[in-house]
Fold these 3 entries.
Entry 1:
Amino acid sequence: MYKIVRKKQLAENVNEYVVEAPLAALKAQPGQFVILRVDSEGERVPFTIADYDPDKGTVTILVQTVGATTELLSRLNEGDSVADFVGPLGNPTDLTKYDKVLLVGGGIGGAVIHPQAKLLKKIGKPADVVLGARTKSLLLYMDEMQAFAAELYPMTDDGSYGEKGFVTDAVAKLIKSCRYDAVLAVGPLPMMQAVAEVTRPSGIKTIVSMNSVMVDGTGMCGCCRVTVGGERKYACVDGPEFDGHLIDFKEARMRQGFYREQEKEHYCRIRGEIKNG
């Protein structure tokens, strides 16, 4: 069992969990993920590591309540435990070799770029950061990014904070005025695809995080397969981060919706909106 040592609500239906997982914390690196089960009967669900502390033996994840498992997880509190917490999994993404990096986070994608911003600041190469959300209350990790970013550019769809517009608007402006060696974009598939298209003409290395449906996390089940440069890859063992200019986003978006109706029904049953039997 893995104890939840801290739970904090960051926005509506968005919770941050700090989980006691000493072995995972010892090996974790930016870009990797964990797979957890809420209980022994639960499904295996992946979450990208938002932070880690090897000294305290903790790993931080950010969870948006959107389905059955995340609903069950949302009912747990500090002191409760999850049955399984496996990781770190996937390949870390090393951005330290680049001199000038732009990090782009959309929605809860801000949690994924957080450890990258933290590490780049630590080695003396702070990145520029673009954070985007529908409205001010959904802009996550703003204080942390203020501390770690060279420059922070918040964007909101409704103009309630920062500049009104999409993250792609900020990216388009920034790549005209600054020479970036690499861009890391994390968020919904349409957002990552849009960022990749903005950077494509200039040929800037653009990395995206494919947090796909996963089961075993070892490449055996094939659920997380994605086409990259015409080749079949598996997000759990070959990723989760890939060259955004090579991703077949049309296929990825289609696969993302495969189990939407089943997940919706299961979610409604857990919430009591549909009766069993």
Entry 2:
Amino acid sequence: MEKKVIKFLQSGLLEKYLIGETSPSESLEIEKYIDRFPEISEEYNILQDQLEISARSQSVEAPDVLDGIMSSLDDSKVVKLHAKRKIPYWMTIAACIAALVFAATSYTFYNQSQVLKEENNTIADEIFDLRGDIDQNNIMLDNVMRQLMKLNNPETQKYVLRGNERAKDLKTVAYINPIDKSSLIDVVSLPELSDEQCYQMWAQMQDKMVNLGILDKADRTLKSVPYIEDALSLSITIEPKGGNTNASVENAVAEIPLKIKDQ
């Protein structure tokens, strides 16, 4: 911008010209500047808009003397108001595009936020489930360690029950500790039976057989069974499905005597 233009704009003559406080010679000089320099013309238009807005905000109904005042004005001092500038069409389009881009960006961020929230909830659920699994595994591990301690106890006696001709592949191991009075059974293998039959374990006393429970292929881990004081032997019989209250001695498939003495 030329120094002459800057100096003119800073002089305040343009504002005086708008409100009619310049002399005829000053007005003529100012109009030449407006026609010659686009920067001054633009500033002039802006000041006109501001003056128009200010006048409207403070306007009151004109009295009857307005006609007299208008007629007394010198034509040379009448300010011609130029047409109000309109917003360029390209600016409107740019504003619309910017609004659409902002809306699309906001929607994308919202969707990403929702996805992250769902992923966080899923991870939290998985961590919760994992902690539950760890707790359950710790309980199982603790039980196994306790059982191993019983098996490794020097006082624990081991008895292997092997099947007779009726169940050659049968093998079950009993671990009995007369000190802490505990019994564990390890089902190694059980031959197949019909759906209406099952294997049942017994402890032989002087005058009766005591039921120790049904054996199943699912019992592949150590299984606790009742400890029976003064038991003479252990035996396994084939019974009807669901077990029997009395042992079918004639259907015995395995038996082993016990040498347990109270300590």
Entry 3:
Amino acid sequence: MNEVEIADLRRLTEVIREKYNYDFSNYAMSSFRRRIQRVLELYKFSSVDALLKRLQDEPRFVKEFVSEVTVNVTEMFRDPSFWRELRDHVLPNILLNTQSISIWHAGCSSGEEVFSMAILLREMGILNKCKIIATDLDADIIQRAKSGVYPLKNMELNQKNYVRFQGQASLDKYYREEQGKVLMDKSLIEHVSFREHNLVSGAAFSKFDLVLCRNVMIYFNQTLQNNVLKLFHESLFKYGYLVVGSKESLIWCEIANKFIVVNNEEKIYKKVKD
């Protein structure tokens, strides 16, 4: 299959924005192109025109398309050293100044990160002191996160991560197996509110002690990253923490001087100026 042309991508983003209000125009071009290529192959479309026709003829297909384009591969306790840093330093620091912790998982995808956080908080004995909001722009993936049902084959990697994180128990304490699937313990997410929220066009809706947005912004161009980082700055209490993905950074952005680097290796930043 030929490489998708830039002109085709532009047409595609315009139609989706005008008709369905999803704005992909600030996505990093190379990553967006790869994802569109994948959609064409997956659905056996002969061209971008064929994809556009289906998007226009079948509004139901739009949701599926958005899911495919924004798909995030995720795992539990990804980057175990980060989770240790969170448990040993970041959360104890937050608890010096507050009785309860508010946490935002921005771009929560299928929920593995949210369950990891809940397990960590339960092992620290502070899960009931935490208010967690998990958001994503894809309604279907939010439902998947809420359901807490995952393929059993993914658990081997998750378990390895948990061991390297040095968890207190064994990961299988937090789920049960059923017909090749894993059902997570629902009591872990009793205090989690799952919501649809679009980082591209959404506004600040609350204040948090800790915001996690890991491996989401790598798909955005600089303009969009800048806007999203401003949104996070606005959403944090002073001295609150922001965590981004291992390939992401705040150093270059407009509001860089309002944060200090807490841990450069794990990409943890602290807001020091309003």
